[in-house]
Design brief:
Helices cover 43% and strands 14% of the residues. By secondary structure, it is α/β, with parallel strands linked by helices.
């Protein structure tokens, strides 16, 4: 039996995911494969490196640091989350990502990015050992979390990539294709959430004017997302997936500066994971 984990993105709603995966790690619940999208990749990688508490710790510590995320960074660099700090200084100097453990862990870890030229999802397996800030896996994870309009596209090979949530927000189908028999899905929106069309398409059309297929992907994102939410519910009803999600909207900013708010959302993730712990165990071992 092969066990899979799917982690939705959602910027700082990802603190919910951090709370869930910390409870999973504390209770020795392991997976054979995991896939993270956007914040689900940047924070979710801690489950493969087995670093309990790291996600909430560094976000609380640096959320007010202008080197981490700021509009001044957006204006100066084109990235609201400062790339040299977030993907270099922080994980390699200040709160170290344990990449040795990450790569020794036999769990397969994938991240999802969106290719600008096609608007399609690309799934990258992070298995290229390289303990440097510009390693190929770090670039893919950065691409996965590079939000359109507030991030520069990430060049990898001959192509450019942005946020994986634009093309595959909840990659349950992808994880099914990896041959997983039991799949735990971590969503960051409540069950009744319905995504609406993107408000700022006029601006996005101008910014991405050279990439019409990416524009099409973003114009239709709400339809894709709502269909994926329905598919998750269907698979849960059929016993083919188990979902952990907030019981109410998390109401947290994408670049939240209040450490107490980050802790609040993290604690919600911990609470819901703890409440469902025995059900998760039973599902994964049945």
């Amino acid at each position: 039996m092969k066990k899979g984990l799917v982690m939705e993105g959602g910027a700082m709603r990802g603190m919910f995911t951090c709370g869930v995966i910390d409870v999973l790690m504390e209770n020795n619940i392991d997976f054979d494969s995991a896939v993270g999208v956007s914040a689900g990749a940047t924070f979710g990688l801690n489950i493969k490196s087995k670093q309990i508490g790291r996600g909430i710790r560094y976000n609380k510590k640096y959320c007010n640091d202008k080197r981490y995320a700021s509009f001044s960074s957006l204006i100066k660099t084109g990235d609201i989350y400062n790339v040299p700090f977030c993907y270099g200084t922080l994980p390699y100097e200040l709160d170290k990502w344990d990449y040795d453990t990450f790569y020794k862990n036999p769990m397969d870890f994938y991240c999802v990015a969106t290719e600008l030229s096609t608007g399609n999802a690309v799934y990258h397996k992070c298995d290229n050992y390289d303990g440097t800030p510009d390693g190929i896996d770090i670039r893919w994870i950065r691409a996965s979390a590079s939000m359109p309009a507030v991030s520069k596209p990430v060049p990898i090979g001959d192509d450019l990539y942005l946020d994986g949530g634009m093309s595959d927000s909840i990659p349950l189908r992808f994880m099914e294709k990896q041959g997983c028999d039991k799949i735990l899905v971590i969503e960051t929106q409540p069950a009744d959430y319905i995504k609406k069309p993107q408000k700022y398409m006029k601006i996005i059309r101008w910014i991405l004017r050279k990439y019409p297929r990416m524009i099409d992907t973003m114009e239709n994102r709400h339809n894709m997302y709502n269909a994926q939410k329905s598919y998750v519910k269907k698979q849960v009803a059929n016993g083919k997936a188990f979902v952990i999600r907030p019981d109410a909207p998390l109401n947290i900013g994408a670049t939240e500066k209040n450490p107490d708010e980050l802790q609040r959302v993290y604690d919600i993730g911990r609470r819901i994971a703890t409440e469902n712990l025995e059900k998760i165990r039973a599902y994964l071992t049945a």
